TrEMBL record:
Domain of life: Bacteria
CDD domains: Pep_deformylase (cd00487)
A Gene Ontology biological process term: translation
Molecular function via GO: metal ion binding; peptide deformylase activity
Keyword terms, alphabetized: Hydrolase, Iron, Metal-binding, Protein biosynthesis
InterPro entries, sorted: Peptide_deformylase, Peptide_deformylase_sf
Binding site for Fe cation: C101, H143, H147
Family: Belongs to the polypeptide deformylase family.
Substrates-to-products reaction catalysed: N-terminal N-formyl-L-methionyl-[peptide] + H2O = N-terminal L-methionyl-[peptide] + formate
Known role: Removes the formyl group from the N-terminal Met of newly synthesized proteins. Requires at least a dipeptide for an efficient rate of reaction. N-terminal L-methionine is a prerequisite for activity but the enzyme has broad specificity at other positions.
UniProt keyword annotation of Hydrolase present: yes
Gene name of this polypeptide: def
Positions annotated as active site in the UniProt record: E144
Name of the protein in question: Peptide deformylase
Length: 178
């Protein structure tokens, strides 16, 4: 049975650990973790979540882009489990964009990320997948990928002037979309 998992927050040492590779994707605990992560990211209205965010130090995350109040222009996609992911290549273009994190509530940062990336990962059936990701979905992937290496988006912000509260961010988004 699927359950919603508690999301750990900044300060929990698990968020700063390098996550372990998953050897056996078919393991029922890994399959349950995938299902639970999908349910948790959906319920929390996030666009991605990494296993370390629920205190499970595995190289696994879900990318689940969809428009919502935090990201009104996000593209729609099915939640996708990405196991033992890797960035194989990336563009030279770096773009700054606003990011928040379920493990760092109330704060947003303007974070530089590669505009496009070529990735590979194993899906929930163990099949090797290769994809080219661009723009917002590439940003989600890079954000979640950082969690697997013990990083949070605040580590990539270039200046404290690039930080904003969630409340102020929402007010600015409302003005732009009015």
């Amino acid at each position: 049975m699927t359950e919603l998992l508690p999301i750990i927050q900044l300060g929990n040492p698990i968020l700063r650990q390098k996550a372990k590779l998953i050897d056996n994707i078919e393991d029922e605990n890994i399959q349950k973790l995938i299902d639970d992560l999908v349910a948790t990211v959906s319920k929390s209205n996030g666009v991605g979540i990494a296993a370390p965010q629920v205190a499970e130090s595995y190289r696994l995350f879900i990318v689940a882009s969809h428009p919502n109040a935090r990201y009104p222009n996000a593209p729609e996609m099915e939640p996708t489990a990405m196991i033992n992911p890797r960035i194989i290549a990336h563009s030279s273009e770096v773009v700054k964009g606003w990011e928040g994190c379920l493990s760092v509530p109330g704060i947003r940062g303007l974070v530089p990320r590669y505009e496009s990336i070529e990735i590979q990962y194993r899906d929930s059936h163990g099949k090797l997948q290769k994809q080219q990701l661009t723009d917002f979905v590439a940003r989600i992937f890079q954000h979640e990928y950082d969690h697997l290496d013990g990083m949070v988006f605040l580590d990539r912000v270039e200046s404290t002037l690039d930080l904003i509260t969630e409340q102020e961010y929402q007010q600015q988004i409302s003005k732009k979309n009015a």
